[in-house]
Amino acid sequence: EESFTPQSTADKESQPKIVGAFSMRKNELQIDGHTAPRSIATTANEFFAEQYQLLQYMWKMPSHELSREEAEREEFALHVLSLEEIQSTPRPKTDSSGDLFCLSHPDLRVDNIIVDKELRICGVIDWEFSATVPRHAFLPPSWITGFDTGSMISRVDFSSEFTSVLSSKKQQSASHSQLAQDWDFRNDSRLPTTYILLDPSDLVWLFYRYIYPRLYKEPPDAIVASFFQRSDNKKLQLGLERRLRASERYTQYLKDNNLVDKEEPEWQKLREWTKETERSLEQLRKWSDETSDVLARLDKERAAMQCEREQRV
């Protein structure tokens, strides 16, 4: 049990109490009645194990008006991320630098960076939920890498320009050189997985936008539905049913006690519109991929025909 009662500084034997980092997601779990202790990770593996446990807790909780389709998509994403080959993606290799920890700002957006008239950085604000993270989880802000779920700015790709500037600084110091090496994300397979572990609330969006397409060619609706119909996934099916029943009871409790948000109908319409938009975007992406394949094939055929003409001449 953690104690946050101030202790007298007059007692020389009294030392500051070090606890795990404050976490917005853990606070949300505690508000919902779930105990989320803040342990102190001393190794990278301990850190990722704790974050994965937090991810599981968050997406196993009952949810208001949870549909079967939503529950299946969430459970499927959790299952895929539990696979050994996926879990090993953000984990560091065993070396002397794997357990180095860095101070990480959780919300390093432009609004939190103070600059002067010449755009020189004068200070950074909003450090409330800052924490130390393993070097392999010390990532650039998601709006730079294009993985930001909460801002339209993520549509703009700053990663190439950012990497170019960072590379140009490699000769200034060993720290610049190390950071340029760590943040060389040309093979960025670990980025979405690590971002999910750092903020589990981004699970569904990041998983189906970036991780799923690398693993499956068919659209999610087909894969997810058939996945839960397989007999070897009975344990997952039972867990899914338990969460759906718990969510039904939770929703009914909210309604019986007038705890449902008055704006809920509007939010429901927005969610339905969002789902429909996601389906349309998925169809457009599929059509775009098919069109790209056709165009690539036509280009090859055209090039082959051109070669034949040149050989005849």
Structure description:
This protein has twelve helices and four strands. By secondary structure, the protein is mainly alpha-helical. Helix content is 53%, strand content 5%. β2 and β3 form a beta hairpin. The strands form two sheets. The protein has a two-stranded antiparallel sheet. The protein is globular, with a radius of gyration of 24 Å. This is Aminoglycoside phosphotransferase domain-containing protein.
What's the pLDDT, averaged over the residues?
Answer: 80
**Rg, alpha carbons:** 24 Å
Major sheet strand order: 1-4
Largest sheet: 2 strands, antiparallel
The H/E string reads: HHHHEEEEHHHHHHHH
Number of domains: 2
Q: What percentage of amino acids are in beta strands?
A: under 5%
Q: Count of helical segments?
A: 12
Unreliable stretches: 1-10
Helical content (DSSP H or I, runs of 4+): 40-55%
Number of strands: 4
- Structural class, from helix and strand content? mainly alpha
Overall form: globular
Organism: Fusarium kuroshium
InterPro entries: Aminoglycoside_PTrfase, Kinase-like_dom_sf
Domain Aminoglycoside phosphotransferase: 92-132
Pfam family, one: APH
